[in-house]
Amino acid sequence: xxxxxxxxxxxxxxxxxxxxxxxxxxxxxxxxxxxxxxxxxxxxxxxxxxxxxxxxxxxxxxxxxxxxxxxxxxxxxxxxxxxxxxxxxxxxxxxxxxxxxxxxxxxxxxxxxxxxxxxxxxxxxxxxxxxxxxxxxxxxxxxxxxxxxxxxxxxxxxxxxxxxxxxxxxxxxxxxxxxxxxxxxxxxxxxxxxxxxxxxxxxxxxxxxxxxxxxxxxxxxxxxxxxxxxxxxxxxxxxxxxxxxxxxxxxxxxxxxxxxxxxxxxxxxxxxxxxxxxxxxxxxxxxxxxxxxxxxxxx
Length: 299
Description:
Layout: H1 10-14, H2 19-37, H3 44-51, H4 55-83, H5 85-104, H6 109-137, H7 140-172, H8 174-195, H9 210-221, H10 224-254, H11 259-298
């Protein structure tokens, strides 16, 4: 989302949808990320054997998804400023469902990698718009409280993903595990289509102009705080997703755990994430944003 997008009228917009509906919408949109990245992890060794592919190719299903997820937001943010959050969400979630079904039915590893890339780009629409919606509807203090509640929902979803993925993979096979995100995406799509009102009051007609994009990106890239936070986040996510890409092969093929047992191991990772969010709130109150980020970086 562009920093110079037209400001919203938070109170008027928030009154159109109940607070509970807003939190539910945000939780579903943010929850698409762990559903997409975590739920299929117990099935990775099985789908590798099923396709007769090397482990490195299977891990590309996660790499391609993450690259598409990151790059897509450079385009989807301006698109949502130009045309609104709702159209971008409807198109993005529809593409997500299609990509999830395509991945589940993929005839080869190459097709699966391609569909996962599409899925990652579509996931970018959901996560990016969720944060933009908060900015549209609320002043910063209220937005932080609403986002905190939504992140609690995200934590619950993240806790359930790997155990459900392991159980589904054990009982029904890896293709069914790849189909489950399509059901989640369809539920989010139905909610947006039936209950979600547009939150962007005034669209920005200049959002997609090349000069506007270059100016915005240049301003952001010159900001030292942005560069520092980006470097820290990059390091954290590099470690996390390196672990995710290798963990299922290590726990299932090397240590001999079942897919369901591996899902329970991953549950503890999600619980530690939730514990970290509570610690973050405590540190924010005592040390402020910079102090909290610095302590998190040292950890």
